[in-house]
Specification:
- The chain has one helix at residues 24-27, and strands spanning 18-20, 37-42, 55-58, 61-68, 78-85.
- By secondary structure, it is mainly β.
- The chain has a five-stranded antiparallel β-sheet with strand order 1-2-5-4-3, with no helix packed on it.
- The longest helix has 4 residues, at 24-27.
- The protein is globular, with a radius of gyration of 14 Å.
Length: 86
């Protein structure tokens, strides 16, 4: 109620992830570019729901999450996180 923003940093280490490029179908009509990457993480391996603006570090490279490609209403089996280099 004070109007202050509170930031909490939480680190989840040693989570298996795969990096790929977006598919052409992911690019159509979106803000996703061919220079972005997709970080795939099984939802069972990640104890949180990632949000836009969160950071993901894979192999010492840090990326900013811009979106999650899951379809709303689906059971989330894996997170396909569209990211830009930070």
């Amino acid at each position: 109620n004070t109007g202050e923003n509170v930031t909490t940093q939480v680190t989840h280490s040693n989570i298996p992830a795969q990096i790929s490029k977006p598919k052409i179908t992911d690019l159509s009509g979106t803000l996703i570019t061919i220079n972005d990457i997709v970080v795939n993480i099984a939802s069972s391996d990640l104890p949180i729901m990632p949000k836009n603006g969160d950071l993901v570090t894979v192999d010492d490279n840090t990326f900013t999450i811009m979106g999650n490609l899951y379809t709303k209403g689906q059971q989330i089996i894996k997170h396909s996180l569209v990211c830009k280099s930070s």
